Amino acid sequence: MNEVKDLMLNMLIIILPIFIYQTIWIDKISSPMVTARDRTAISIVATVAALCCMTLPVTPLPGFVFDLRLVPLLIGILYGGFRSSLFLIAAVYLYSWYLGGPGFPIMALTYPFVILAAYLISSRFKRWGRRQKLLSASLLTFFASLLVKTAVVVTAYLPQPDTPQLPIIAAFVILHVLSICISIFLIENMREKAALRFEIQQAEKLRIMGQLAASIAHEVRNPLTVVRGFLQLLQSDQIPAEKRHMFLKLGIDELDRSETIISNYLAFAKPQSSRLETIDVAERVEHAAAIISSYATLQNVEIKHQIAQGLYIAGDPEQLSQVLMNLVKNGIEAMPNGGTLHMNAYKRGQNVKIDIIDNGVGMSEAELERVGTPYFSTKQNGTGLGLMVTYQIIHSMQGTVQVKSVPGKGTQFMLTFPQNEKNALPD
Ligand code: ADP
Ligand code: MG
Predict the structure, then answer these.
(1) Where's the Histidine kinase domain (predicted)?
(2) 364 Cβ partners below 8 Å, 6+ apart?
């Protein structure tokens, strides 16, 4: 009975870190690619799991010890790649040497082959689909555990030579394959969800951009018409020199203005990179207000912002833009007859607060409860994904959201983020 308990413990040691990894890091995974930071995290998690497995081994027979260290080791190499798993391998070897017993010589004998095979697979592993990953990892684990077990038998580290070896070998191999399958299944599932979320985020951004495009085109056309008028005037030779200068200056100013509108829009359209840096909140709020201003004007909404300078938070500036854009756009859409939208950013203790306040239609209690859940939308062409994405981004930046709303009076979204020192690298 005790062996089963030990075994369950070993499996738990392997699976638990995957869940911990999910809760801590998955929020920060904003792209389906495995980044360098992910690799380091995977390597650390795998190292902890492997060392714990070795500390709490299974003893099915007296004097006979085994553990599932092979599983986190292989996962670390397959997902982490060559460089980041060097630390993991070194740690496992060193710890095995420190623990003593037959474990180290067996490892020294067999693991180089296993590690080499894992490396060969790992370069292709990340490109494979879930089924190929499961299959290749199972096969690798099958042969690896068979090799290790055979080495144990051949080197005659047999505590009880008279017991039949075959069932023990079979159990050893099956347990390993089973553990790695469960682990890979969990990891793939969770990465797939992260990738899906990333896609929804991109799609929502594209949707906002599409809806803004018309108003931006409108806004850019006005200066063009003005410039065309000036050019037409300049065609005539009878214009005095100082008038000529004035027309040229006005024309250039108008062109500059449309250029700013377009480059603001394009900056927002930039593909997501998911950087982690210090964000200047004032700059972002002003930027969002600038992009949306043409849309607001078209809807008869005035945007007023009151922003304290020197507010810094940690995160991806592009993502904060996306958050602000969706909240401001929702606010504008809540005021079909026009109104005023306030954007305030200020410091409260160790936090930076951003409030977005509209005096639009507001929400009932029931609506307030559903806000931010996927597909909740009261708009004809709404997706109800904007706020879901918005909330996710805010949470991934360690922020929180509070909503107050009174039907017919208006709505207030209050964001709170931990303050970050300027130029201090966020951790
Ligand atoms: P969408 O804008 O596509 O409908 P969102 O997730 O952005 O999706 O918003 C979901 C719903 O929340 C909206 O349809 C609306 O009913 C409600 N909502 C969001 N912001 C406001 C607001 N400022 N005032 C009133 N209702 C709002
Ligand atoms: Mg919206």
Answers:
(1) 215-421
(2) 407
